[in-house]
User: What shape does this take?
Amino acid sequence: QVQLVESGGGLVQPGGSLRLSCAASGRAFSINAMGWYRQAPGAQRKLVARIIIGGSTNYADSVKGRFTISRDNAKNTVYLQMNSLKPEDTAVYLCNADVFSGGRYYTTWGQGTQVTVSS
Assistant: This one.
């Protein structure tokens, strides 16, 4: 089974920065796309940023100009650089990957990492 392991969450003051990392591992697989989603308390899970194997990216309007998604295909790792953080960015951030493994396509998720932006 493909697993996603996340790191980099924590507590930061408004205006600060964090860098999230998510590494995929497994016996044999390929990945078409990886992304980051977030879910605030009482809210629906929403896309933050996504990157496909060809390099195209998509961002939520609320993070454009502040967040940057990147991917190291050789390491099967995706990053989210978050700058100029705001309290409204507070959420559980979840890594996502579209995976081909065992002859099937499926979506898998990481465990989530908490990002809290507060003074």
Q: What stands out?
A: The CA atoms of residues 87 and 117 lie 5 Å apart. The chain has a mean pLDDT of 95. The first strand starts at residue 3 and ends at 7.
